[in-house]
User: Fold these one by one.
Assistant:
Number 1:
Amino acid sequence: MFTGIIEAIGSIRAMTPKGGDVRVYVATGKLDLGDVKLGDSIAVNGICLTAVELPGDGFWADVSRETLARTAFVDLKPGSAVNLEKALTPTSRLGGHLVSGHVDGVGEIVSRADNARAVQFKVRAPRELAKYIAHKGSITVDGTSLTVNAVDGAEFELTIVPHTLAETIMVDYQAGRKVNLEVDLLARYLERLLLGDKAAESKASGLTESFLAEHGYLKN
């Protein structure tokens, strides 16, 4: 588990095809690896990766086909800057929100505009994730815990203060960039709870419109 508070900006040092997937070397910059052991988790742009080698100034990790297919990792290349966060410990401050490091989908930056000293971003999420994104709710973008300031269909707005811009890769975001999105865990669990006994049915993976209408959650 993670908090969504980025600890350092690292970079992709190398990417090596291996047995159908990819082994990646992440240079970790100012991130303190003194307490990191083999097998520990580190979030890279919000993707939970397992350290399989620790050369000293970074770590090697294996990236599965599943991760390559479901995240914006495929857009990274040697030299790409990435957000880094070590897994939280029982004594960590939970400054953001609970983040699993399991990406739900890939979004796209629609626009960027200055807003006093902050920057306003509009982001388009995949349609299937729109139901989990709420005004003033939490969302994780490339591993960064952020507050949603406005929602319009599958698009949402973020206001990013100077500190966050300086400490994350968001300073480089421009329209058209693909980003990893993880929705709030509570929204996911609430969805399953509302399914009740239907959750045990093989196709009951989400709240369909027919289910919502049947139980009075959709009203004209």
Number 2:
Amino acid sequence: MRLCNRYRMTANQAALAARYGIAGFPPDLTLPPSELFPKRLAWTIREEDDARIAEPMAWGFPMTIKGKTGKSIEKAVTNVRNYASPFWRSALKAPARRCLVPFTTFCEWEGETGAKVERWFDVPSQPITSFAGVWRPSDAGPVMAILTCEPNPLVAPIHPKAMPVLLTADDEPTWLRAPVEEALKLATPFPSQLMTVS
């Protein structure tokens, strides 16, 4: 289950600071354009010492696999699909390793290969919405990944396998602080009536 590995974060730092209650926003670190893809830096929000902080992280947990020729290949695992997998267990279990990934719209592709059309989803009542994310340190700096779940009725006709886990503002503290069993109860399809697609 995966989203199409493409989303937008078009709000500026002032809007992000106001939305998430961040007092001291780090300086612009020449992040990539507002359209985000795997391995690019993106803003994340996490809690440390009871305060929210914003931190840029690369999208995708590094994983080394063997290619067809037997050589090792490093790939970026961008979406948390199997919550019981040992690969994700430590990040999901520790509230300190959970984060919010702000976005304004996310993309899924509709149609057959060679004639696909991009469809953009948003939440009009929340101009800046959060994906449920996890993060961890890596040799190259902190990295994050986004949880996925079953699609809701709006997403399913376009992408029947999965959609990202979206959070309401009221649910964000639970995702960042609660025990894993309670936090994972939020990993459900976001209400389709609160979303639009274009």
